[in-house]
Amino acid sequence: MKKFIKYKWPDEVIHALGDMGMIAPGIIQKKSYRLIEKSQSFILNVDSSKDRLLSIIPPLLASMIHEEKTQIILLGHKEELLSSSFDMKEYNKYTQYRFVTSYPGTNTFEECQTIYKGIDILFTTPSKLLEYMRRQVIDTNFVSYLIYQDSHSFSSEEIREIKEIKKHLPLDCSSILYGLHHHEFLKKNIHTTLHVDSSKVECTHFLCKEPYFNTEKKQIIFVESYEDILYYAEKLNVNFVIHQFMNHASQYRIMHEFNKKGGLLIVSDMASRYLSLHCDTVIHLGTTHIDQYMSHLSRVLGVKHSYIYDTKFTKKQLEGVVITISKEDYDTKHHLLYETITKNPDMLQTLQTDQLITIIHHLAL
Fold this sequence. Notes:
Blueprint: H1 11-19, H2 27-37, E1 42-45, H3 57-62, E2 72-75, H4 78-91, E3 99-101, H5 108-117, E4 121-124, H6 126-134, E5 145-149, H7 156-166, E6 174-178, H8 184-187, E7 193-195, E8 204-208, E9 219-223, H9 226-236, E10 240-242, H10 248-261, E11 264-268, E12 277-278, E13 281-285, H11 290-298, E14 300-301, E15 305-309, H12 315-318, H13 332-343, H14 353-364
Parallel strand pairs: 1-6, 1-7, 2-4, 2-5, 3-4, 5-6, 8-15, 9-11, 9-13, 10-11, 12-14, 13-15
Helix pairs in contact: 6-7
């Protein structure tokens, strides 16, 4: 796996990514980096709730020359803009990139003054960008990339505004469409689409009678409700929790801290949508639908073991996503024993009769 440190980016960029728990790019990021190096427009067809936009911004920033002009503009709606802006603030602890986040309701006069002095990145809405252009506080001749986040959600009025904006952009300005669904007008003349097949999650799945908690290891526990958060946080004496009643800033702060330091993290189902976590062991408590289960797994990079407890779906429903699945009444020792055997088949000769029967039964599932 090629880590970020192998890329020829400034040290502050690498340090910023590491501090946020981002150690190595995924396959989709590697492909996008190659296109960015060529200043090529493309569609990044990924789930924006799973794959944070900041994972494709570093190569843009690393190649930027600090000028007094805006070079990257991201267009979206308030929710997406705030999410990306928070990531950018964390990233900027090590870097000195200048950026402004604006949407209807923010102070236009102060923003105009800041933009006129010079910024690197602008997170804004189509209507706000058009207003800055009309006031002549932004010079679009220096814009190198225009990024559209979840462009399918733009209204017909916003598309009209985007058409007007594009008339004033330089001919060599490239576009990135980021998200799963995109507006047909914006897809015109973009011939490259990057997408990832997330139908299978490459990890070992276990149906368990008892939850497999290990407070000394890095683990994520997905629960159904806020009440479950309170119960398990007290039961396991866990400090890292993320639930739907926390603001996004608090959620992201805990997410970054967990990715960096580890420990136990409890996440409610409703709060998991905009997270991007890194962990090899995930526990699911009370998950009722297979789609919900797969959605939880898609929020976590690097999963190797997934334990399912107190669920209503069956082994049959999991057949399409599993590599290996344990018998429902296997205990943790059998799980670990089977994993050890798969890595070292010679150990079969050292097993007791009952252990060998267990493994044979497991292989027959």
